[in-house]
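Run log // design_07
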């Protein structure tokens, strides 16, 4: 159990991703909340102090940039929170914009959950656990 006091917010419009990330991080001792849309994420961020927010770049089937809006919101209102932006539609321009708004890590989907967990640990200033 390596995430005891840390809370993670996962923001994605795909239920399967929310379920997989939530289950994975909870088994490793993290407290996890999930949001499917921007307004839900903002409501949670206004009331809960998260260590890390993992957000998808697009939160709908339509081309959108809600993920960067979440990163911007976190950067402006929760500067202690680390941010990870996931995308299946990455480009150098998207990554530059994300970095401009303070995203800590920009990841391309699909990415194995153990790799995402390793990045979370690095962002939290801890070394990853030794392999079993």
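design_07 sequence
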């Amino acid at each position: 159990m390596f995430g005891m006091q840390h809370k993670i917010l996962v923001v994605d419009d795909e239920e399967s991703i929310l379920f997989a990330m939530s289950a994975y991080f909870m088994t490793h001792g993290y407290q996890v909340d999930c949001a499917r849309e921007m307004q839900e994420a903002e409501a949670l961020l206004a009331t809960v102090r998260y260590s890390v927010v993992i957000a998808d770049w697009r939160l709908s089937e339509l081309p959108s940039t809600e993920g960067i809006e979440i990163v911007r919101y976190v950067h402006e209102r929760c500067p202690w929170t680390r941010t990870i932006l996931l995308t299946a539609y990455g480009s150098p321009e998207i990554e530059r914009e994300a970095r401009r708004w303070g995203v800590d890590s920009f990841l391309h989907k699909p990415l194995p959950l153990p790799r995402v967990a390793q990045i979370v640990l690095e962002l939290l200033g801890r070394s990853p656990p030794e392999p079993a």
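The chain has one domain: 7-123.
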